[in-house]
Amino acid sequence: MITASGVTKRYAEGREALRDVSFEITAGEMVFLTGHSGAGKSTLFKLLAAIERPTSGSIVINGQNLAALGRSTVPYLRRKLGLLFQDRKLLFDRTVLDNVLLPLAIVGHPPRDALRRAQAALSKVGLPDREKAMPIALSGGEQQRLAIARAVVNRPAVILADEPTANLDAVAAREILEIFRAFQQVGVTVLIATHDPASLPAVRPRVLLLDHGQMSELPAVADAAIAGAAA
Amino acid sequence: MSVWLAQHLAAIRDACRRLAAAPLNSLLSLLVIGIALTLPTAGWLMLDNLRALSGDLPGVQQISIFLSLEAGKRDVGEIESRLQAGQVGKWRFVAREEALQRLQAAEGMADIIASLPRNPLPDAFVVTPANSRPAELERLAKAFSGWPKVAHVQLDSAWVKRFDALLRLGRLVVVLLGVLFAGALVTITFNTIRLQILAQAAEIEVARLIGATDSYIQRPLHYFGMLQGALGGLCAAVLVAVGFHLLTPLVAELTQLYGANFALQGLSALHLATLAAIGAALGWLGAKISVLMHLRRFA
């Protein structure tokens, strides 16, 4: 589903954000990507979302080699990904419903069908009664739910989430991870980047560790040990 | 309904929504565009009317063919046949009796005419050529003068040349004004779209990140430019129509004093559609340039 082979990202000023990163995530898997701030998580997220291109190496998502994608085909790849950004990127001058309708409008869904799907997405994330609210009126956890609803409304096969539990209290963070778990259980591949090992769920996940641009995979160990290693 | 059509309709709705979102700003922009388009439109319309007026005024762009006094009906018929065969334009036969009656009707001429032993006026033809270019008029006048029983051909070629030069100068001024104000319209739209892009930066960025194509992002902005230009064109039409409405009675009165029956021709439905289309095209151009320049930073 997601395969990265020898991915290196070097910026113009010479800084190497990722060095020879390789991993594979199979369909329906839920994987955490962790590491300290500046380890390269966000860079990897940008490469996976085709926001930036690797200096070398290849990334294949759903059989599509991102390096081979032309500029005009990148939007069609992104439509198949559920992207959650660290800063959520909600539109604060639009209602909750309008935020969720945006990806459907981009794809060109008929309005009636789009409305039904947007309402269903909001129900899935527990915001069925906040359609007409403005995002500013939502709590941090609710805003994150809204971002998830927007990310999943086009029923993507892959969800890429960058720090989805940042700035949330433990309860809200757990609820958000439960939502991701629910999507994973219906076959969606989920990759969650987090700098906070404490936010990893109690059920032992697969964890990829980035450290100064280099990736390793944590061995299957107990939860507490995962948290300790990542720290 | 196809996705393509639905997205275009959605983009038009979005453009209308953006126009309505800031009514005062939109109104001011439309007024500025309207005023910019009013000057060349009014100038062009005035020239058009002037050209029509020149056809109505006696002697202007007309050739008079005076036959000799001994010319008979057969000679008149011969000239008529030649005019018909030559397809030179419109023409009218003025019999010597009709000419005398008209002269008698003129103020102070009745007594003079009555004192004459016989009618001194010849039969004549008044030709209004289809092609009113000075060179063509002179060519026709030369040809007419060679026809049998033609005593004199009258063409005020100097006047015609002056009038034609004036029209050409007027046309050039209108074209220059048109280009200048078209540039102004493009610039106004360019700036409006730039402000739209700045105001919608967050939305554009998010849309791009979640899979919007360039076309999806650009389409409402293009429609906005077109809509603003078209409405500006209609605004110009209203301004021109008001101006012409005020001028019409005065011009009619003035032309009557010169012996012509002339009414100013305002904008027709076709003119209106053309003006809106020109406004829309220039608005689209301004939007297109602005979008190309300012959306780069979201790439």
Number of strands of chain A: 10
Radius of gyration of chain A: 17 Å
Largest sheet of chain A: 6 strands, mixed
- Largest interface, Cβ cutoff 8 Å: A-B, 26 and 20 residues
- CATH class bucket of the largest domain in chain A: Alpha Beta
Major β-sheet profile of chain B: 4 strands, antiparallel
The number of helical runs of chain B is 10
Category by helix and strand content of chain A: alpha/beta
- Quote the average pLDDT of chain B: 88
Q: Any guess at the CATH architecture of the largest domain in chain A?
A: 3-Layer(aba) Sandwich
Q: What's the number of helices of chain A?
A: 7
How would you sum up this structure, described in words?
The complex is a heterodimer of chains A (231) and B (299). Chain A folds into 2 domains: 1-80 and 156-231, Rossmann fold, CATH 3.40.50.300; 86-155, no CATH class. Helices cover 33% and strands 25% of the residues of chain A. Chain A has helices spanning 41-48, 74-79, 96-107, 111-124, 140-152, 170-185, 223-230, and strands at 2-10, 16-25, 30-34, 56-61, 64-65, 81-84, 158-162, 189-194, 206-211, 214-217. By secondary structure, chain B is α+β, with helices and mostly antiparallel strands. Chain B has 2 domains: 3-56 and 161-298, no CATH class; 63-155, 2-Layer Sandwich (Alpha-Beta Plaits), CATH 3.30.70. Helices cover 73% and strands 7% of the residues of chain B. Chain B has a 4-stranded antiparallel sheet. The A-B interface holds A 49, 51, 71-72, 75-79, 83, 85, 89-92, 94, 102-103, 105-108, 110, 150-151, 154 and B 1, 3-4, 6-7, 10, 202-203, 205-214, 216, 299.
